[in-house]
Design a protein that fits this description.
Blueprint: H1 13-31, E1 36-37, H2 39-46, H3 50-58, E2 70-71, H4 72-82, E3 89-94, H5 98-105, H6 108-111, E4 114-120, E5 130-131, E6 134-137, H7 139-144, E7 150-154, H8 158-171, E8 175-178, E9 191-194, H9 197-215, H10 217-226
Parallel strand pairs: 3-4, 3-7, 4-6, 7-8, 8-9
Antiparallel strand pairs: 1-2, 5-6
Helix pairs in contact: 1-2, 1-4, 2-3
């Protein structure tokens, strides 16, 4: 189940997005003492179809062993290596409002290979405060010694987000996670991921509404008949 280097090139974005899901499922299986897992069992744990899972893992050069399945530990290592999780990544959270506080205190970063190293804000009343064991610094202090391999997390209001992204790009940051509800413009070569909680809730509301309509067809028919 070794992964050929050539097989790691050109992995589709949709597959990359599912690799962390597989990694989480494998971690859960390992915690239960499971040594090997079939594609069907792993797919069920990850909430995907087994054919899609096998296709995704084939991009890593992992095909499992017929009749046996995948070695849980080895597959975890392959996916972690593909995701670049062999070492800790430094994270700077910019914006120490309510969301920034919550992200700073989130313990899940460390358990997944991400070390929150800097908390940044431009408000003089906040700079110097200690949050989740770290001292908040200004953007100028962060830029004074631009760290390599940094991932920037934007947790500012939308009006400030573009300026923050611009400063991160100027520092040489190539990876940005944006929690601000706005679209950011970044140059080619900078990867930006957007997390919009309100949009996700709206999508859930859509499905909830249609589930209710499907569950109550009689009332809907009566209303239509009497209108």
């Amino acid at each position: 189940m070794t992964a050929a280097p050539a097989a790691r090139r050109g992995i589709p974005g949709a597959t990359v997005a599912r690799l962390p899901v597989y990694l989480r499922a494998l971690a859960g299986l390992a915690a239960k003492g499971v040594d090997t897992v079939s594609s069907e069992e792993l797919a069920e744990s990850a909430g995907v179809r087994s054919a899609k899972l096998r296709k995704d893992l084939s991009y890593l050069g992992s095909y499992g062993v017929r009749g046996v399945g995948y070695d849980v530990v080895r597959l975890r290592e392959e996916i972690a290596r593909e995701l670049g999780l062999q070492h800790d990544w430094s994270v700077a959270i910019i914006g120490m409002g309510n969301l920034g506080h919550a992200l700073a205190a989130y313990s899940g970063f460390a358990t997944r290979g991400f070390r929150v190293t800097w908390l940044v804000d431009e408000d003089p009343a906040i700079v110097g405060q200690t949050i989740a064991g770290l001292t908040v610094i200004s953007f100028d202090e962060l830029a004074a010694e631009p760290p390599g391999g940094l991932i920037g997390v934007i947790a500012t209001p939308p009006t400030a987000a573009q300026a923050v992204a611009d400063r991160l790009v100027t520092m040489g940051v190539h990876s940005i996670l944006n929690f601000a509800p706005c679209v950011l413009n970044v140059p080619e070569g900078v990867e930006i991921r957007k997390v919009d909680l309100a949009t996700e809730l709206q999508i859930l509301a859509f499905h909830e509404q249609h589930a209710r309509e499907d569950a109550d067809p009689i009332d809907g028919g009566l209303q239509e008949a009497t209108s």
